[in-house]
Structure formats: structure tokens, C-alpha cells
Amino acid sequence: MSDTEAEPDYDRLLRENLERVFNERDAGRRAAALEELYAPDPVMYEPGNVVRGRAAIGEVAGALLEQFGPAFRFRPAGAAVGHHGLGVLPWQAGPEGGPVTVTGTDAAEIADGRIVRLWVLLDPPPG
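Above: the chain's sequence. Below: its structure in C-alpha cell form.
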């Protein structure tokens, strides 16, 4: 990123990723969001997996929602911050209106206003 290039809106981009990709149950809408929010050949790093490409990331998001049931949602746990192409957003997840079952942070490399690489960092369970 050059010194004159404007910083992306990290908070908007990472919140939209949570809502429009990881909370979206409709595969068509999720695919459209991936095309808008992600670079052409993104990579997502999960604790035990590396996922390459928009379609594969969409499949992972859909499988998570299916696995955890119809009320499961990801929610931002604060505002995203970032600079020089790196943004982070803390989040929490669980059933809508129910207890939080998992927390973590998304860290994203952003270029030209899109996610190039996404790291999903899970917090250790309490206790």
C-alpha cells in the first residue's frame, strides 16, 4: 500500500464478511457476497485447515451454519481496527438469543478493498 492510498473501511468489510458470508444461509447470496468482499483467489486459514478460493470458503461457511443449526449466528464483539492492509475483528457465536459458545478473532489482509487472506483465530475455551 502506498503512502497516498486510502485505508479501507476495515470495520465495514469485516462486519459484512461475518454477516453476508458466515451468517448467510442462502448459497447464492453468500456467493455474491464472496465475489464482492474477497479478492479473486483468497486463502482462509483455520486452525486445522487451509481453504483456497471463494467457492471453497463459501462451502465452509455453509457447512458451519448447517452443523450448528438454524439459530446459530456470528456477532461482532467490538469494532474492527486495522492499518496498512491488516484488519482484525473480534467476534462471538452461538444460538441467537442464547449463550455464546465460541469466541475468536478474524484477521484479514486487505488489498484494493477486498479480503486477500483471512485467518480465523479461535479463543481457547474458558477454564
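The mean pLDDT is 94.
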